[in-house]
Design a protein that fits this description.
Helix content: 55-70%
CATH topology of one domain: Thrombin, subunit H
Strand content: 5-15%
Largest sheet: 6 strands, antiparallel, barrel
Radius of gyration: 71 Å
CATH superfamily of one domain: Rod shape-determining protein MreC, domain 1
CATH class of one domain: Mainly Beta
Oligomer: single chain
């Protein structure tokens, strides 16, 4: 039931109560009917006026109700429009969120890839640092070796210079000896001179041995009376005296000489630095 219908029902009930009251008054009072009628007509007029007022109020209420309905419908339409707009905005926001989520996933993948690349680059950098450190160490070692080699080269150059000077001195001495021999009517051909097969009584030490143990450098030379072709005996005194073998002088300098091992050493024992070389000590027969 509508609001207007409720009002009409109330009005009808009011009229019914009013007429009931009038009937009750008529039956309960026995006054002048005319006067009562006039009075009741007046009351009816008043009630009619009130009814008109109530009808006007009802019409006004209907108009207000219609206006309220229209306003309500407009409000509903506006609300529905706002809801639709909000739904559109929500859909757009959801789309943007999905796009942002997709971009975020791509960004995370890119970040993970970048982190992996950064880790690989860091590991490669560490390896390069280690390699650089190793190369620098090798470079330092090469520098030290180069310095040692330069020192050896300078030492060998000094030795070569000394040897050249000794060679020049020996040539001068040989030339003077040859001149002296020829002046005294002797031959300067060393091959015709006898008595050089046996070396003088000398004793020295082995200064150096080659890797194959076939060449030795000794600490005695031409100043001690040695010449090429002399043979010397090699022995060792420690821990027990031991004869090792024999060497033949191949080249001679004033304070050193180089010889080769004759045959094989005793029991294949290798000659070492510090072993004794002598022209007087011979193996036991």
């Amino acid at each position: 039931m509508t609001f207007v219908g409720k009002i009409l029902v109330i009005v009808i009930m009011a009229f019914a109560i009013l007429f009931l009251g009038i009937s009750t008054v008529v039956f309960s009072t026995h006054t002048n009917w005319k006067q009562a009628t006039e009075s009741e007509k007046k009351k009816v007029g008043d009630l009619t006026a009130k009814t008109r007022d109530l009808t006007a109020a009802v019409d006004a209420a209907k108009k207000d109700l219609d206006k309220a309905r229209a306003d309500h419908k407009a409000a509903i339409d506006q609300s529905e429009s706002k809801i639709k707009s909000l739904e559109d905005e929500i859909k757009q926001a959801q789309t943007e969120v999905a796009a942002a989520r997709s971009k975020l996933e791509v960004a995370q993948q890119t970040a993970n890839t970048s982190l992996a690349e950064a880790a690989a680059n860091r590991q490669e950098t560490e390896q390069l640092r280690e390699q650089k450190k190793s190369v620098e160490q090798q470079a330092n070692e090469f520098k030290l070796q180069q310095t040692e080699l330069n020192d050896k080269i300078r030492e060998q150059e000094r030795q070569l210079k000394t040897l050249d000077e000794n060679n020049k001195d020996l040539r001068d001495r040989v030339a003077r000896y040859s001149t002296l021999l020829r002046k005294n009517g002797l031959s300067d051909n060393i091959a015709s001179v006898t008595g050089l097969e046996s070396p003088p009584a000398v004793q020295g030490e082995v200064a150096r041995v080659d890797a194959r143990n076939s060449r030795v450098e000794i600490t005695i030379g031409s100043d001690d009376g040695l010449v090429s072709g002399h043979e010397l005996y090699v022995y060792r005194t420690k821990p027990v005296p031991q004869y090792l073998g024999k060497i033949q002088v191949m080249s001679v300098d004033p304070d050193q000489a180089v010889g080769k091992v004759v045959g094989k050493t005793v029991n294949g024992i290798k000659i070492k630095e510090g072993d004794i070389v002598s022209s007087t000590i011979r193996p036991r027969s």
